[in-house]
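Lab notebook page, bench 4
Experiment: in silico fold of construct C2
Operator: M.H.
Input chain length: 235 residues
Purpose: comparison with the prior construct
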Amino acid sequence: MNKEREELESWKRKIVKRSSVFQRVSKQAQKKINQFIPEKAHKIITESIKKMVEVTLKGSEWSNSSKAEVHLSLEEREAQMEERLEAHRKAAVIEGAGTGAGGIFLGLADFPLLLSIKMNFLSECSAIHGLDVKKYEERLFLLYVFQLAFSSDEHKKETLMVIEKWNEKKEELKEMDWRTFQQEYRDYIDFVKMFQLIPGVGAVVGAYANYQLLDQLGETAKYAYRIRYFNESGK
């Protein structure tokens, strides 16, 4: 397990490392670009995220009671996660290209669809690790993994600390601040995704952006669940 632990520590160092000058400048540029995104797009993103958070916490859509076999190693679990990531990534690419090709109206439809793909992937990751998302605390964990993947550097640091001490923190975290959640997510993806609304280039941008976003989620989920595995297995 030394290799897996070293990889995990290296990844955690990247999360807590201060933003580069380029990242900080990009963040400022992104805020200005947000002003040019149609208000309708902002509303759709906000409502989509609010609904996704509510549905996840209620547990009516992504519940998956299947359990991983207890004898599976970490390597075997992560191999299964990679297989599920590949399937969801393909779906996201096809969906992003299809909606992006339709310009602004179909492009707007991409946001709720992509959210669903991401949350389904995380739900399957939980099942692979033998975690029951019918339990409220596990559904809440999905949302924290999501935030760890798609939020500002500062928010990622805070979220990582929660995940590292999940067994302690889960008793304190009974609700999710969806307003902060949606703002962090919007700020993270708007810079790229806004170009998906432009006819002519939307299909290429949509496919590429969705591929990258699923990759980012896949890497984050891998290490978030690895933290849970080490903490709960005692290894």
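Observations: The longest helix spans residues 202-233. The chain has one domain: 2-233.
Next step: discuss at group meeting.
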